[in-house]
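DATA SHEET
Item: assembly model
Revision: 1
Owner: S.N.
Input lines:
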Amino acid sequence: MKHAPKSSDEFEYLKWIRSELPPASPDLEVGPGDDCGILRVEKDRLALKIDSILENTHFVLAKPGVRQPSTMGPAATPEEIGRKAVTRCLSDMAAMGATPSTCMVSVTLHKGAPVKLRQDLFLGVSKTCATYGVNLAGGDTQSWDGPLSLTCSMIGLMNGVRPALRAGMAPGDVIAITGSLGGSILGKHLRFEPRIAEGRFLADNGVSAMIDISDGLSGDLTRLCEESGVRFPVGVDIAAEAVPVSKSARRLAKLEKAGAERAMHHALHDGEDYELMFAVRPGRWKKIVTEWPFEAPIRALGVVRSLEKGQPLVRILKKGEPEALQVMSWVHQL
Amino acid sequence: MKHAPKSSDEFEYLKWIRSELPPASPDLEVGPGDDCGILRVEKDRLALKIDSILENTHFVLAKPGVRQPSTMGPAATPEEIGRKAVTRCLSDMAAMGATPSTCMVSVTLHKGAPVKLRQDLFLGVSKTCATYGVNLAGGDTQSWDGPLSLTCSMIGLMNGVRPALRAGMAPGDVIAITGSLGGSILGKHLRFEPRIAEGRFLADNGVSAMIDISDGLSGDLTRLCEESGVRFPVGVDIAAEAVPVSKSARRLAKLEKAGAERAMHHALHDGEDYELMFAVRPGRWKKIVTEWPFEAPIRALGVVRSLEKGQPLVRILKKGEPEALQVMSWVHQL
């Protein structure tokens, strides 16, 4: 055991875990810490993911006659919960450029939960698998004196495409993003479209690094910098006017009786938009923009710079003036 | 939706799930309901498994100064819990004849759980992976207002060996088993050795069907009959004197102030021994017995017969007289 994590957040824990990993075979090309692990099998690579969603953390189960405060968005139907367990993994597959193949789902229910609840959870899983052409290879259902949780594990095929990792950004790269951000609590976190084809296209076009925005722009951008900066320290400058503030972010700010600044806050720090953020050489960026065949918009946010001592990892330019962008997005407290 | 499950046990639920599965690609050769799913990737097959262990169902977390009643066996250390999450999947891999390759583990902790608890859980996982040569490709750690649970998902390689399924028994097959049974609550359920090499050897020697005994002999034998009986109904007769009653089963009976009959009850119905039970053509059985290179004992329990109308699936012969063997082993109530 090398050192104990100093704080209780998941990043410190991940650092410690990486120092304590079991020996891996050369077939495991990417281990814990990226959107997916990568395992070589014969001539192809598999992308591997496990992810859990928990009641009252990732969803609130809808109950008849109970309405949530409007700023907390809608409670989730069991089918939406089943869907979310699968689509979160699909989004991680997208962030590697993998084609999802097969999943397994473990469900833990409250003891005495109605039969209809577990049926509808399963149908949410099953229909989502059908929609995205994913096999369901197995599962596990149990009950206990505890809240509802679902764990999905997924396998994707790289089909010869080089996986897009979190590490790989270099100074001069363009930072870009699909879709728009903020206010996903109002419904998008349950109904988002994982950017599978987009991720595949981007990986195929040789992006330097990619991540799906699950914790929030400020945190996930910081993570890209940290992962990419292991060999050569890098930071990112983004332009405030380039941040794609979503309609939901504006609507949420309005519900909070606040204005444009609050909407921008939601776009910068809210999680669960499941959009793809990536870095790419400028020449390739031009090609991507020109050939982009998808409905989802795509836009440049800023550039990667080499990080000088004492500089913040992520800066936001407001009217050309850089200021440090604080990480105010989701950090799991353990 | 075809029909709602009539009862609340997991077998009814599994039947319903199988009727509601999403369309699968031809690559998915075995779907939900066996020890593992089987996915074809290029020229090889992968065995896939997901499994959750829950606090107070699969283990009791050891607390300083708290001792359990002796018939409940020892509480588990965090390292033992981490180990069990992985070894249960390893046992399912063994039951297919697969060689375990890579796993992922999702951990859900009580909020505010001590750092040492999650470290020791992880070290239990990590050391077990190292012991069995399994890669750890990823994971997920979260906390909530609920009990402790771990979900392990695992990938194994068939390396050209034909997977041993639960379906495949034919009349005349010998039913046989590794190791001994009963009383695993006294400690074996935390410290069992998954029969990986044994499973591989058995699959390689063309067993007709195989399962790992997780729920108990009576239940798992019934399941083998049900799964194998889809095309042609089969039953099994086992000889009472052939049932390998373990020392733990005898010790548990003694702690309960009972005798040999109670020890036999434990051997027939207790779960979590993680021994392999299989059916095999008599000629192949002879070869297996002759060439068996492992320390773990192996023995014949009985034979597979064609099932006539009204006959019980599983019968136990006591001094040559057959009687129905009731399923009194573990059934998950949902």
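QC remark: Chain A touches chain B through 81 residues (CB under 8 Å).
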